[in-house]
Structure formats: structure tokens, C-alpha cells
Amino acid sequence: MTKKIVASAITSANLLAGVLALVCILGSSPRYHLSALMILLAAVLDGLDGRVARRLGIASEFGKELDSLADLVSFGVAPAMLFYGLGLGELGWPGLLGVLLFVLCGALRLARFNVLNIKTYFLGIPITFAGSLVALFALINLSPYVTMHLYLMLAFLLLLSWLMVSKIKIPKF
Question: 140 and 88 in contact (C-beta within 8 Å)?
């Protein structure tokens, strides 16, 4: 029983890091750096939960579904809202459309992953990778030496959205 709780606790920590990333964006003085760091922390936790579950021999359908729900928040909603707060909101409907498309494509990517259950490769880039890239680009953009043009941010988000739902085969290592 204790073994099962360990993997679920790590997945739950991933989810909570994603929620904290969202909380950091909200309010009168957003903390974009901290939001990006919470997303990257969620990525570390996401890499850990599956390894722990396999090592302890407790991988389950429940864990897989919980992981997907956590991933949608931490690597879909939180990164999209981070980019929205960093400037995509200023673009009006194109920025909003980019954010919505990123979240939708992330959800579709996760659903396809759960249904197909392919063991040797990923079909499209994983949402964890896409969301982590958004967080890294946000940190770069927050640097006093770099400012990314808003339309470049939007194009990047749209490219990642397409890559998540693409049929590109990426080997699993």
C-alpha cells in the first residue's frame, strides 16, 4: 500500500507545481520567473513518478490517468498562461487563439498517447517536452538582455502545438 502512495504522491506534486505555476501568474504582481521554475520542477517530478512506479512494480492505469491529468495542467495550461501573461494577451484574439490551441493540442496528445499505448516511440512531441520548452523560453525572455517579439512567441507556441499532434515518430530512450 505504501509503495502505491509514493508514485501517486510524486504525480500529485507534479500537479500541484503546475497549479502553483498558475497562481504565480495571477494577481497584481505576477511572478513569471517563479511560474516558469514551477513548470520545470513539475517536469522533474514527471520524470520521477514513472521511474519510481516501474522500479517498485506498481505501474497502473490509475497512475497513468492521474499522470495525464497532472501533465495537462503543468505542461499545457500553465505554460500557455505563462506566455499569455508575458505578452500574448496583448495580441488580442491571435494570442488567445494560440493559447487555446496549445492547451487543446496538449489534451489531444495525451489522449492519443493513453489510447495507443505505443512502447517503442512517441507519436508527436510529448506535452512535457513542449511545456518545458515554453518555460525555458519564458525564462530566456525574462532576461534583461533578450526580448522575444510577441509574434515570435506566438509562432513558437503554434509550432509546438502542431508538433504535439503531428505523426512524427520520436524514439523512446
Answer: no
Q: What percent of the chain has pLDDT over 90?
A: 75
Which residues, listed in sequence order, are joined to residue 170 by a DSSP beta bridge? 122
What is the per-residue pLDDT across 38-47, written as a single tens digit (0 to 9) for each? 999 999 999 9
Interior angle at CA 13, CA 30 and CA 32, nearest 5: 15
- pLDDT tens by residue, 50-74: 888 888 888 888 888 999 999 999 9
CATH code at 2-171: 1.20.120.1760
Cα–Cα distances in angstroms (integers) from residue 60 to residues 2, 56, 84, 86, 132, in the given order: 15, 11, 35, 38, 25
Which backbone phi and psi does 28 adopt, to 5 degrees?
-80, -25
Q: How confident is the model at residue 148 (pLDDT cuts 50, 70, 90)?
A: confident
**Distance between CA atoms of residues 95 and 41, nearest Å:** 26
Measured N-to-C along each axis, helices 127-141 and 78-85 cross at an angle, to the nearest 10 degrees, of 20
* 168 CB-near residues (< 8 Å, 6+ apart): 123, 124, 125
Distances, alpha carbon 99 to alpha carbons 40, 123, 161, in Å: 19, 22, 9
Domain ranges of the chain: 2-171
Whether the pTM exceeds 0.85: the reply is yes
